[in-house]
């Protein structure tokens, strides 16, 4: 065990180990409970506990969970054994739980490599106790307002706490997060070059970057991929995106391939990788994963082989069933996050064919809490206007805030004749007019997947019954 700084550490460690054992015996994941107990007994537990030799953090507003899970899967496929917080314990108590599980009573660690999701606001509780070797940041957007306020607030919290010796891996297309921690000299940047579907400037109801982040001057945009992710230059001070070390230079959607050029390597070689489900979000997440893996020492050939045989975007975020030409797609997005939800809605409405879109974004857990109320202001920062698309024949709402969302759809100009409110998951399936639509798509919160599955199964049953009647 590392040098003990607190006389309470032995008791805290024993309590954490006992809690882990009890949770395992009862079949509970317990992502943060063991660590929370340990930190209550010993507030310096994270400094006292034995830690892996190398620690890699994945952070950012959108994509950190997907990227973290992808990276752990990729490393496991190549023979690495990691300690991680896959279940989502991305705050200090989650790290404490993971490190306690990884430590032995003899002071050793079971795995010498940690690859972990890191909450953007957790730095003040974690960095005083240990320094990550690598910190990758996917992006910074506005997030849950009641917790994260604005991107500027999150930036300031992260910016002052990152240890100077940490290797930063940053998104060159994000002029907010690419400026993080100038005290860190070891910096690696990644980028996606201009794509055919890019816009001339950021589009959407809101943009988190309306002026130069350095001087407040006007930004001249070359292109935008997604909201403020893109390339621009300040007309006043000349601030622009940093040059990327890794750059996606082409995407072949039909072949599910994309090519990355390593600009800083001798000869700027290019490598091609598999992306099983294209979206700009998935492309960024997978690119981040690849860049971190390359900086950790994996070869392009190792990475490409793993991606080619199935290590890719998790089905928990995107799942598709095709029943005799009827596509039933379920897409999850981060709750109370307007960018993630806007992207999901846009991806679904762009799918070919007439469709019904069932929206299940109300927080099912918060709805049951007597002392909490879900903040619905984020509905007015989300691009529901895309549902005006004529191929969207029905929009069906479910959840405790459905009436609030219905009002938002009215403001978005969605035809009242094609909007419906369901009182149960089963009713969402009943409301779908299979004579008008060929496909049924679900946009739901991360923790509403089970509710969406109930509805989707009933749609499948209806399709099978219709088929039986026509035989």
Automatic annotation (TrEMBL):
Residues of the active site: 371
EC class of the enzyme, as a word: ligase
InterPro entries: Lipid_II_synth_MurT (IPR043703), Mur-like_cat_sf (IPR036565), MurT_C (IPR013564)
A Pfam short name: MurT_C
Top-rank taxon: Bacteria
Gene Ontology biological process terms, A to Z: cell wall organization; peptidoglycan biosynthetic process; regulation of cell shape
Annotated positions binding Zn(2+): 212, 215, 234, 237
GO molecular function ontology, one term from the record: zinc ion binding
Entry keyword annotation includes Cell wall biogenesis/degradation: yes
Pathway(s): Cell wall biogenesis; peptidoglycan biosynthesis
Protein family: Belongs to the MurCDEF family. MurT subfamily.
Role of this protein: The lipid II isoglutaminyl synthase complex catalyzes the formation of alpha-D-isoglutamine in the cell wall lipid II stem peptide. The MurT subunit catalyzes the ATP-dependent amidation of D-glutamate residue of lipid II, converting it to an isoglutamine residue.
Subunit structure, interactors included: Forms a heterodimer with GatD.
Protein name: Lipid II isoglutaminyl synthase (glutamine-hydrolyzing) subunit MurT
């Amino acid at each position: 065990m590392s040098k003990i700084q607190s006389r309470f550490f032995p008791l805290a460690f024993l309590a954490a180990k006992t809690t882990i054992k009890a949770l395992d015996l009862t079949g509970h994941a317990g992502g943060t409970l063991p660590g929370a107990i340990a930190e209550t007994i010993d507030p310096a537990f994270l400094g006292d506990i034995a830690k892996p030799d190398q620690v890699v953090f994945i952070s950012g507003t959108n994509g950190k969970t997907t990227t973290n899970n992808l990276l752990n899967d990729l490393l496991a496929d190549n023979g690495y054994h990691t300690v991680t917080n896959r279940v989502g314990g991305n705050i200090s108590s989650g790290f404490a739980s993971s490190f306690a599980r990884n430590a032995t009573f003899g002071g050793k660690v079971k795995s010498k490599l940690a690859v972990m999701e890191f909450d953007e606001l957790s730095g003040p509780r974690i960095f005083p106790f240990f320094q990550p070797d690598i910190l990758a940041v996917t992006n910074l957007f506005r997030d849950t307002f009641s917790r994260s306020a604005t991107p500027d607030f999150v930036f300031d919290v992260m910016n002052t706490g990152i240890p100077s010796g940490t290797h930063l891996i940053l998104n060159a297309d994000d002029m907010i997060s690419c400026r993080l921690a100038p005290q860190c000299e070891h910096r690696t940047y990644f980028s996606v070059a201009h794509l055919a579907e890019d816009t001339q400037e950021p589009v959407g109801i809101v943009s988190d970057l309306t002026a130069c982040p350095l001087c407040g001057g006007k930004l001249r945009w070359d292109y935008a991929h997604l909201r403020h992710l893109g390339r621009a230059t300040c007309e006043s001070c000349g601030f622009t995106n940093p040059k990327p070390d890794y750059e996606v230079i082409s995407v072949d959607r039909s072949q599910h391939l994309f090519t990355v050029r390593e600009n800083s390597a001798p000869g700027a070689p290019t490598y091609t990788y598999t992306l099983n489900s294209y979206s700009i979000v998935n492309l960024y997440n997978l690119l981040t994963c690849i860049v971190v893996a390359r900086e950790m020492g994996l070869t392009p050939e190792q990475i490409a082989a793993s991606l080619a045989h199935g290590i890719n975007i998790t089905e928990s975020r995107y799942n598709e069933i095709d029943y005799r030409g009827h596509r039933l797609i379920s897409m999850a997005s981060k709750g109370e996050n307007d960018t993630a939800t806007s992207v999901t809605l846009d991806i679904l409405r762009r799918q070919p064919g007439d469709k019904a879109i069932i929206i299940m974004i109300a927080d099912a857990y918060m709805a049951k809490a007597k002392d909490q109320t879900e903040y619905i202001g984020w509905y007015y920062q989300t691009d529901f206007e895309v549902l005006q698309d004529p191929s969207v024949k029905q929009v069906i709402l479910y959840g405790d805030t459905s009436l609030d969302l219905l009002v938002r759809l009215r403001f978005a100009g969605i035809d009242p004749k094609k909007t419906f409110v369901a009182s149960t998951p089963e009713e969402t399936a009943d409301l779908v007019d299979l004579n008008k639509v060929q496909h049924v798509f679900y946009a739901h919160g991360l923790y509403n997947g089970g509710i969406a599955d109930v509805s989707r199964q009933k749609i499948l049953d209806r399709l099978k019954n219709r088929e039986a009647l026509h035989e």
